């Protein structure tokens, strides 16, 4: 037990209870169903733009590509064009694989002492963080896209197609969407890593736990609403459509659980720009990944170099030619 | 990365986040279906569950009914109002569609609105279609 995860855990519980009690006890549907979601979206967008603009304004004076393969060299040495690209096409492929397949994470290693007599420090390939991260991110993406069914009417074909494939195992009624449990289990795995692995636990802060608990809370309340307690979907869709068409509408008979879910989502959106979750935008700006390794082929001049008065060899020789000839030194131009 | 590229990416991202808003501006938005009781249901007015419970939980109820009928051959269901119903989606006067005669209005309008495509009708038939 330590306060680094107890405080975020308590915070998420209290936030949920705040919305639940606010709606069930005080009838604050308008606050939690209309006002806060709008504010959260505004905070998310404004915060995101400010953050990225700040990053865009910061200096990238020289190329610092990480080299995970053979650099372009002599023609008879085979270059690794994706892991050490010297063209923007190669960089594009590297970024694509980074964003969609998390290749840097795939290279993750762990250090541990051998458990035998030698007690040597060894590094080994650690795949499960990559597996968990991949499962989590894709499940979250599918869940997010599926929720567009609440914000469009009629629902576009690609969302229906996504729902079809997500629910293809046809388990139970309402049918199971695989992405839901995968999202919950993957977040629980990522959390267990932080809690149970002493080395990861040591470097985990409240800001690492809070988004995890928040997403676990969102997934759990969503799953509870769909599969266990059930809610009036048409009423909820009338409300969400009201939000996106600017005709707010509060449905009757939709309880605190839904508002708790919505409030946690709003908190996630509002918190997003000031959290580590900004790696969503930041991954595009990874300086070690998004620049071609062509420092030897091209001259990159520091853009804010000021004009330094330089003294070339020609000027030097012009200056000292007589003295150089007199001393018998070789000169480029006689006279 | 050049600043222009970052700004272009940022614009695309903001537009994507706001897509539910502008999508509904440029396309005509379907209004929520207003459920109404038609035919026999309008006069009898005795359903298996209360209105909002029915809206939220009918799929679960049908799932339980299916298991009860198929596995235990038990076709009797006593609702909260004390009435006994025949557990059936589409067969006979005492079934769901026996009372709510219009499948398009009773089932499909809301399912379509919520983008739900239940597989009930892969086995069952709408009694109206048989005639």
Which terms summarize this structure?
heterodimer, A: 335 residues, mainly alpha, Fumarate Reductase Cytochrome B subunit, two-stranded antiparallel ribbon, 2 strands, B: mainly alpha, 7 helices, elongated
Structure, explained:
With 335 residues, chain A is an all-alpha fold. In chain A, 57% of the residues lie in helices and 3% in strands. In chain A, strands 1-2 form a two-stranded antiparallel sheet. The mean pLDDT of chain A is 91. Chain A has two domains: 3-304, Transmembrane di-heme cytochromes, Chain C (Fumarate Reductase Cytochrome B subunit, Up-down Bundle); 309-335, no CATH class. The N and C termini of chain A lie far apart (85 Å). Chain B has one domain (39-130). Chain B has seven helices and two strands, in the order H-H-H-H-E-E-H-H-H. Chain B has helices spanning 3-17, 19-26, 39-44, 51-72, 96-99, 103-113, 127-130; strands spanning 76-78, 84-86. In chain B, strands 1-2 form a two-stranded antiparallel ribbon. The radius of gyration of chain B is 22 Å and the shape is elongated. In chain B, 11% of the residues are buried. The model of chain B has no long low-confidence stretch (mean pLDDT 85). Chain A binds chain B through residues 41, 44-45, 48-49, 52-53, 55-56, 60, 148-149, 151-155, 159-160, 163-164, 170, 172-175, 230-235, 237-238, 241, 244-245, 252-253, 281, 284-285, 290-291, and chain B through 1, 3, 6-7, 9-10, 13-14, 17-18, 20-21, 23-24, 29-33, 35, 52, 55-57, 59-60, 62-63, 110, 112-119.
């Amino acid at each position: 037990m330590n306060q680094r995860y107890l405080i975020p855990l308590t915070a998420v519980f209290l936030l949920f209870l705040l919305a639940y009690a606010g709606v069930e006890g005080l009838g604050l549907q308008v606050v939690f169903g209309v006002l806060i979601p709008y504010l959260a979206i505004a905070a998310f967008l404004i915060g995101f733009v400010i953050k990225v603009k700040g990053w865009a304004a910061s200096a990238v004076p020289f190329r610092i590509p990480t080299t995970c393969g053979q650099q372009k060299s002599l023609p008879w040495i085979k270059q690794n064009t994706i892991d050490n690209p010297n063209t923007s096409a190669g960089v594009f492929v590297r970024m694509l694989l980074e964003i969609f397949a998390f290749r840097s994470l795939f290279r993750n290693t762990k250090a541990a002492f051998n458990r035998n007599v030698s007690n040597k420090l060894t590094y080994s390939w650690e795949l499960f963080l990559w597996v968990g991260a991949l499962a989590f991110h894709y499940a979250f993406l599918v869940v997010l896209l599926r929720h567009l069914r609440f914000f469009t009417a009629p629902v576009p074909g690609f969302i229906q197609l996504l729902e079809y494939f997500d629910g293809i195992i046809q388990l139970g009624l309402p049918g199971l969407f695989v992405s839901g449990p995968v999202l919950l289990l993957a977040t629980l795995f990522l959390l267990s890593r932080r809690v149970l692995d002493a080395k990861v636990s040591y470097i985990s802060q409240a800001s690492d736990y809070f988004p995890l608990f928040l997403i676990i809370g969102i997934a759990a309340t969503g799953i509870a609403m769909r599969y266990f307690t059930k809610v009036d979907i048409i009423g909820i869709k009338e409300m969400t459509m009201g939000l996106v068409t600017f005709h707010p509408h509060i449905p009757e008979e939709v309880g605190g659980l839904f508002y708790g879910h919505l409030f946690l989502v709003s908190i996630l959106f509002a918190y997003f720009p000031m959290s580590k979750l900004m790696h969503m935008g930041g991954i595009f700006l990874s300086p070690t990944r998004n620049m071609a390794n062509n420092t030897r082929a091209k001259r990159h001049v520091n853009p804010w170099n000021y004009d330094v008065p330089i003294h070339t060899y020609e000027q030097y020789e012009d200056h000292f030619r007589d003295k150089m000839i007199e001393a018998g030194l070789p000169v480029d131009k006689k006279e | 990365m050049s600043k222009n590229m970052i700004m272009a990416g940022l614009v695309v991202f903001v537009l994507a986040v706001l897509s539910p808003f502008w999508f509904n501006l440029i396309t005509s938005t379907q209004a929520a279906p207003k459920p109404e009781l038609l035919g026999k249901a309008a006069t009898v007015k005795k359903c298996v569950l209360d209105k909002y419970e029915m809206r939220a939980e009918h799929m679960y109820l049908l799932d339980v009914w299916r298991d009860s009928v198929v596995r235990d051959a038990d076709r009797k269901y006593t609702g909260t109002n004390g009435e006994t119903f025949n557990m059936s989606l589409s067969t006979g006067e005492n079934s769901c569609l026996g009372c709510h005669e219009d499948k398009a209005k009773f089932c499909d309008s809301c399912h379509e609105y919520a983008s739900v495509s239940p597989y009930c009708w892969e086995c069952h038939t709408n009694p109206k279609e048989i005639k």
